[in-house]
Automatic annotation (TrEMBL), chains A, B:
Nuclease SbcCD subunit D C-terminal domain mapped to chain residues: 262-355
Keywords: DNA recombination, DNA replication, Endonuclease, Exonuclease, Hydrolase, Nuclease
Keyword Nuclease attributed: yes
Organism: Robertmurraya mangrovi
Family recorded in the similarity comment: Belongs to the SbcD family.
GO molecular-function term, one example from the UniProt record: exonuclease activity
Domain Calcineurin-like phosphoesterase: start-end pairs: 1-213
Domain of life: Bacteria
SUPFAM superfamilies noted in UniProt: Metallo-dependent phosphatases (SSF56300)
Assembly notes: Heterodimer of SbcC and SbcD.
Name of this protein: Nuclease SbcCD subunit D
Functional summary from the UniProt entry: SbcCD cleaves DNA hairpin structures. These structures can inhibit DNA replication and are intermediates in certain DNA recombination reactions. The complex acts as a 3'->5' double strand exonuclease that can open hairpins. It also has a 5' single-strand endonuclease activity.
Length: 382, 382
């Protein structure tokens, strides 16, 4: 029995102000083709189909279109759950009808975990749910963390699980041992969102969504498929693929990966402005990729982003990082907002970064005067 | 062949700050029971299933539940279209799957109007669409009004329509001859949203949604079913029902109405405060109905809404209207915002309504001084 494990499509995602819907359409077309070639017995989507609870309408249309091709036209059973980015209730709408076409979609956590059986394999669908919702749905006091919630759910599943059959857990969770990237960050703050690996011991294969790298966890039975695309620059070096799992009757399996190639990659580039704008440099580059550029230049630069965009139209983020011999690296732009600094400190930082000259006491005096005058006038106006 | 015609459910509707979802659930339960009794060959819902493009999640769950009962449990084919309050794209999601269960849902206008055939009757599904969307979908220049759009659509339908069969048009539009109420108002401003009755001549029965009264149009083949519930006080005196249509092979039909009874009616009440608060008056009243109360009292009243709510918990709107012998009626509250008045005029109106004493020249002088001082200070601060 063969299934494809994918997750974290995040349809309707906005990356640095750019809607990724067309990139997603491109990659999903490749995915549909891959399904056509592989002819799996099922496609498993482990949550975060959309990027937000109310996705833009073109993302809604894209999902409808892609699932229709896979499920109805290619007659492939589809197993899908809601992730933390999906709206459980909105995604759940219509799921009772979809089952007739072997499209098994679970948006909301329920008090029943009857497996979906496809060619001898049992799929247990566990959508993302807050501990409070699990406590309510399972009517179990004392469920206050994701760990307790998952334990309660799996305990409930085990009541009727036949360990002699291949059992696949489909979930959306932060399983410990994983590494996070920027685009997954929201959930994991403080570690309260984590669950431990040992909970999944009853399953032959655990098909997870949530972390965006297929290498996020090293385990012989627990896997993240990784996201469809790179969704932040912290994922720039991750491979993106879907997992092809061939499940045997005894619950062991073979796994291999097939990658999907977006038209535009997301990657980082660094160097001196002049160098990056040099034909001999960029003629070897895929200039329309989504780029984060780090400039090493010292001193003031006049509108570097404009100049860069004439060569690299999709620069999404620009940073400057001086490369000095005996000093620690200094960051600009991004760090400014992170700390609470006085106006004078902010200006001093700006001045030294832009000029590399010293911000002398004389200069400091002049600026102090200017700043005080401005603040005074602002106060008067209030 | 028997079908039930309903429309304008407006699930998730907020009336004067109150979510009507529980009232809707109550009435829809009655509707499901009515379907069970009538055993129709189809249920037709002519648009505005939801009240807005992104309805609250409990409205989404309610629609899912009700349609599942009717379509899957009672095995009744359902024919539904999007209205102007629905999101065409969001409602359309999944419609390809629903067809397998004889749930025919059209959210988006398309360039094809293949009828849904149910027991010898052809249903033509025409969701609400802006003229621009119709122009685009049908690729027809010169479609700039709703009238032109509807003409183009029906022209297209007629290309393949067999006039010897019973043909039912299912649409969501403001057909001339109808009367509007407050809750339909948005679309009809300026009359540009109107279409004429003659366009529907090719059809045996035209099942409309949009206007909320079943009496909104007097025509022997064009009908509004009316909304599920009263959704504004301008509908307080309307009957609310669904239409049971028995269609014969030659395209003639019988029609009858069945009403649905919400737990709480929406109605208007008027009188003097003391009278309305008198036990002998309200003991005969259904005090927990949704009420618009008009008080006839003169002079100042201390917190009348609080006093009224102790007897009538669901007062949604309070107005005052003096009943004077030789004067025209005067309105307060609501009328204030309608006209552009000076500060002095506004105060004068307020003063006379609250006290019924004269706003003398002396008083006027004092107020003029106060108002000028306030405006002056406000100007200085800007």
């Amino acid at each position: 029995m063969k299934f494809i494990h994918t997750a974290d499509w995040h349809l309707g995602k906005l990356v640095h102000g750019i809607y990724m819907t067309e990139d997603q359409r491109e990659v999903l077309n490749q995915f549909v083709q891959l399904v056509e070639e592989e002819k799996p017995d099922a496609v498993v989507i482990a949550g975060d189909l959309y990027d937000r609870s109310v996705p833009p309408t073109d993302a809604v249309e894209l999902l409808d279109e892609v699932l229709f091709k896979i499920n109805v036209e290619l007659k492939t059973p589809v197993v899908a759950i809601a992730g933390n980015h999906d709206s459980a209730e909105r995604l759940h709408f219509g799921s009772s009808w979809y089952r007739n076409s072997h499209f098994y979609l679970t948006g909301k956590i329920q008090n029943e975990f009857k497996p979906v059986q496809i060619n001898g394999v049992n799929f247990y669908l566990v959508p993302y749910a807050e501990p409070g919702n699990v406590r309510h749905a399972l009517n179990r006091e004392g469920v206050n963390s994701h760990q307790e919630a998952m334990k309660a759910i799996i305990g409930k599943i085990e009541e009727n699980l036949n360990p002699n059959e291949p059992n696949v857990f489909v979930g959306h969770a932060f399983v410990l041992g994983g590494n996070t990237t920027d685009s997954e960050r929201t959930l994991s703050v403080g570690g309260s969102g984590c669950v431990t690996q040992d909970l999944f011991a009853p399953f032959s294969y655990t098909a997870l969504g949530h972390l965006h790298s297929p290498d996020a966890i090293k385990h012989d039975k627990i896997f993240y498929s990784g996201s469809l695309l790179k969704y932040s620059f912290s994922e720039a070096k991750q491979r993106k693929s879907v997992s092809i799992v061939e499940m045997k009757e005894n619950g062991t399996f073979d796994i291999r990966y097939r990658s999907l190639a977006p038209k535009q990659d997301m990657r980082e580039l660094s160097g001196y402005l002049e160098e990056l704008l040099d034909t001999s440099f960029y003629e070897k580059e895929k200039v329309d990729d989504y780029l984060k550029i780090t400039l090493h230049d010292e001193g003031a630069l006049l509108d570097p982003i404009e100049k860069l965009r004439q060569v690299y139209p999709n620069v999404l983020h620009l940073e400057r990082k001086l490369v000095l011999k005996d000093m620690k690296d200094k960051k600009s732009f991004t760090s400014v907002r992170e700390e609470k600094k006085s106006e004078l400190e902010l200006f001093e930082q700006f001045y030294t970064e832009m000029t590399t000259a010293e911000f002398t006491e004389d200069k400091k005096e002049v600026m102090t005067e200017v700043i005080e005058k401005v603040l005074q006038e602002e106060g008067d106006r209030r």
